[in-house]
Amino acid sequence: MKLQELLKSLHPIVPFKGENPVITSIENDNRKVQKGSLFICIKGYTVDGHDFAESAVEKGAAAILAERPLSLEVPVVVVKDTTRAMAVLADTFYEQPTKKLQLIGITGTNGKTTTSHLIEKIFADAGKKTGLIGTMYTKIADKTLETKNTTPESLTLQKTFRQMVDAGVVLAVMEVSSHALDQGRVHRCDYDVAVFTNLTQDHLDYHKTMAEYQRAKSLLFAQLGNSYENDKPKFAVINADDPASEMLSRSTAANVITYGIDEKADIQAKNIHMTPKGTRFELWIEDASYPINIQFLGKFSVYNVLASIAAALVSGIGINEIILSIESVEGVAGRFELVNAGQEYMVIVDYAHTPDSLENVLNTIQHFAKKRVFVVVGCGGDRDKTKRPLMAQIACKLATDPIFTSDNPRSEEPIAILKDMEAGVEGELYQVIPDRKEAIELAVSQASAGDVILIAGKGHETYQIIGNVVHDFDDRQVAREAIEVR
Known about the structure:
The protein is α/β, with parallel strands linked by helices. The protein has 16 helices and 23 strands. The strands form four sheets. The chain has an eleven-stranded mixed beta sheet, with helices on both faces. The chain has a six-stranded mixed beta sheet with strand order 16-17-21-18-19-20, sandwiched between helices. The N and C termini lie far apart (63 Å).
């Protein structure tokens, strides 16, 4: 694609001097530049891409996109915001791949990963070739790739969607983080269905206030657009039980479909019953009722299932197919995942890393816990500090044996993070074990028949970040080894 043709998607077009080269790739990482690349200078938190423009030209870049004039031998296109322009150019370069897909985006504090996996499973069981982008990995048909962020930057995102189209994928489902929405990473993504799970405290280190956090989430629904196409209608699937639902419903011009348990909704769960092996409930859609038996525990799991059912229904999958698929799912890695090594007590690993998610999981455990409830929990470094005392309070309130430990301390001192947690539970009984492995081993060594151990915060993660070093660490493996050597 010629440079001038590519730039037509930017308005207004900023004139530039020089030739009109063929652009063979778009890159914002100087190390990936090759002959014919358009190199986009992005101002990051630690580095400025403008400093690498000359090096990019030496490596063969045919043109540069920048936020200020640069004296180089190739055309330099100057725009106000290169990050914003990158999303537009990537969509154009990769030939608008999301317009060729059924695209479902899921946002919310908790439940995004489970809901996305449930939706992907429903469509796969219906014979559709699927793609998935989220916290755990990126999946393109049968190929699985590692992922760094819940929602990749726009350039990676559009390239991934192009790969999906080329692989014959017809349905893509993705987690959409509040950071991605606020930073414009999903600009030019043509969503067909936007799903809202819930809104509870998280990421206030970035958004500062809950109002701003909610505003960021609302962008997904506003970006559904204002057009109505009979062959490709847009839907907003919203949790009616969440206080943010009203504002989010007002934020979109798309058709709104609600789901819930406590409030009246288009798709509703009633008569919920939980056992140690799963949950059963009645699914009501208008005046029709369907019995559902899922292999998940907890009210929060019912919400995830309802959201998945709603998204699949508005996307054209029949209710009977949906139910068969949902009931066959055994679980999602790191989400209320059981570690079973033949012990007489239950060990659960869960990604719960917010006050609300920790409370939900511990409340669910109360339904079947016969004796003591251990919770091994910490808080991540360089993240929202205000939730630390809240996490500690919930652990002390809902568990008999709280053990505070390290999560991913990153650049912070683990002891300082633990002190922040302890500030919320003065006078309460708990133990502090900074070393996460030792904390898990302690819980396992003290548990007996009928007890429950919850290891919270990291879920599917197979690493622990201490300082700038990423260490191998899997809660499930550590727990299993502790059980086996006991």
